[in-house]
Every structure is written in structure tokens, then in C-alpha cells.
User: Fold this.
Amino acid sequence: MIPAPSAAQPTGPMGAADSLTGLLDEVQARTKLGQWQAVDGGNVQAMLIALGEFGALNTAFGRKAGDAILMETARRIAWFAAEEFAGRPVLLARLGGSSFLVAVQGDTSRKKWQWLAEALADLLARPHQAGENTASIRLWPRVVLARAGWQEAPADLLDKLAEGLNRLKEAGAARTAWVGGESGLFGAVRRQLETDLLSALDRNEISVVFQPQYSCRDGRLIGAEALARWNHREAGQLGAATLFAVAERINFGAHLSRHIIALALREAAGWAGQMRLSVNATAGDLAAGSFGDELVRLASAARFPLHRLTVEITEESLLGDIAEVSASLARLSAQGVCIALDDFGAGFCNFRYLKLLPLGLLKLDRAMIDGVVEDARDLAVLRGIIAMAKALSLDVMVEGVENEEQRALAAAEGCVYYQGFLGSGPVDGQTFVKLAAASV
Assistant:
């Protein structure tokens, strides 16, 4: 799932001014950087991202496809920020065109910032679906990094990043570099992280946390979604975004996914009552014809009943043979597993999936609940999606619920479940066991 990025993205009077992506614009970014500077003298880590060949994409596929790519890019950046910077002040902005800014207040080691930049670049380089009948599209992201100097003005930091990006483009092959042009060390740092991952399982560095899920009607705890975490001995905790980006570079993604699912099933087997477990299926999982059988085997080994299991899939994971994926998921559904389409309403929505897949649950992206309390148009969109889900006999879960007003409205409109910081952020297994026992 794409966790709610609200804990990272600035809110309040500044709002979000970029009408296309919902991120901050350049003016607001400069203002927020200035506010940070006033607090601790400008202790900021920043990265500027640009999508290569974006102009050619607009020419070939049209402005509508280009806008869809920008919205999806913003969504991936927000997910990455929520995964990797939870609890820290983070600034996410679109500076115009296909340029995006990610900045974090506080100190982060140079090596870790490089790891995060590489992981984000990998995430943004994955194929995009820009329209119902559009072939998947890949863009080449370039990322330039900087650490703000003492009392460095926001305008100077952004200018420095822009100059570094121009040099990076002129260099040609390099994808990631520091503003001074340093890129040679990135390969060595990247290879170190890849090597670390191969032995991380033996060192018990890979763990699972659980995002609680609740009944919209009465706030009752009904289950949790399993999320991967990497407790790296040098970098500290890394989220699923970095973890899977590294794993997929070394063709370790399928093995890692099975490990995380097996770990989650073993922990969930001891939950009280009828608590449900949701696990995420990657594109690699769905492309493997054996995924369904392997999932059933893992659940049986953990003695976790299939009727309490949900498999969450995203549109991004469905870029392969949709007929084959649908058949595999149908076999799981026939055995009692609930299939959920995650992040619905984020970026481009291929409604064909609603017809072809054996879905039982629609998970609405947090963008679907943002603004519904104040904005009649947003509420109308939410009502339309829920009405469609009801017509298809799908339950609805909404992500990113942060306050009681949002929960009450979602319940009144027909949402069955919710997850978000109103209930709880992700917790470790022991904490969830206590929550589950208390709710029975």
C-alpha cells in the first residue's frame, strides 16, 4: 500500500499549490526552507529530481499522458517520503515542468542520503501507465543531491541544485550525483548496500511492522497491513521503498517478498479473534505463475486461515499479462482470500481492472479523503466512487484518515474500513498483539 504521506508533507496555511500534483510549488518550497533555516541555521538535506525525455513524451503521447505521468511521479515520491522519513519534517514540491524537490530537515549521513536517492530513482524509473490504451512508458530520472550550508539562503540552495542538475545532464551516463559533480562513489556505495541485503536475512535485519485497520462505523480494530522494514546496522531503519529497490536491482525481489509474507503470516497466526492480515503483492509476485500456490503453502505452514487473508495489489503491479494475473488471483479468491485493489484514485485509474479482476475490496488513496469535509466537489467524487464500488459488490477501505470528521463522513458515505493516523501509525508485532487482544 501507499501509506499516507501527511506526517511528512507540510500542511496548514501554506497548503499545496501545485494544482496538478497536490505538492507544494516553488514559492512555497522557498518559504518552508526559510522557516527551517530560521530554526536551526539551515540543517537541510535536499535532492532535485528531473524526468529525462519528458518533452518527447508529451510530443509522442500528448499533454494528457504527460500530466498522468507527473501525477504518478508525485504519488511515488509521496509514498517514498512516507516510508523513509516518517516523523521527520519533509518538504515535497514540484518546481515546474518535470522537476521535483525532496528536502528533509535535520541531519542524515551522506552515505544514507545517497542510498535513498538511488532507491527513489529506481522507484521513479519503473514503468508508468499513462492511459487506458497507452503502452507502459519508462522515463530516466536524474537526481542531484545537496546538504545546505550554514545560513545558506533557500534561493541559493535551489540554484545550486539546478546547476548541479544541468551538469549531470551534460555528463550523460550518470544518473545521480552531488552538486559538486561527484558521482564516482555512488556505484561503490550502491554495491555495498546490495551486498548487505544478501546477508540481512541471516542478521535478522528484515522485519515487519503492522498498520492497523479499523471499522469505519464503530472504530473497532479489524486487522492490519504488513509493511517491510530494514534495520540496517549502519543506516538505521530503511523503509520498504529502499528495501525493494535494492532487492530488485539484484533480482532478489521475489525471494524478499516471500520472506516478508512468511514472517507476517507467522506473527499474525497468534492474533486474537478474527483479525485480518493484508499483505502486498509485487509486480514480480504477480508475474510468477506459482505465486498463488506459494502463498497458500506459506499460509498453511503458518496455520493462518485463508479467509482472514487479503492480498493487496496496485495498478503499478498489473503491467504484465492481465489475463494471466486475473486467473491466478481468481484461484486465490476461490479459496477464500480477499483481493484488494490498492491506492485507487491515485494518478491514472484503469477501470478495466474492475471488470477483469476478482476483487473483493477497493482501497481508496488518501487523496480521496483529503478535502471532502470542506469541498463539495471532492465529496461528490468520493460518493461516485463508493456508488460504483457498491454496484460491483466491493467493500471500500479509505486510507489516510487523520481526524474524526473524516472518519464520520467516510462512514456516512458507505466506507466500511479505514486506516490512518486517527487510529494508529504502523506498530511492531508485540504492540499489535496487545491492540488485538484489547479489542476482542
User: Anything to note?
Assistant: The first helix runs from residue 26 to 40. Residues 14 and 28 are 7 Å apart (CA to CA). The longest strand covers residues 221-232.
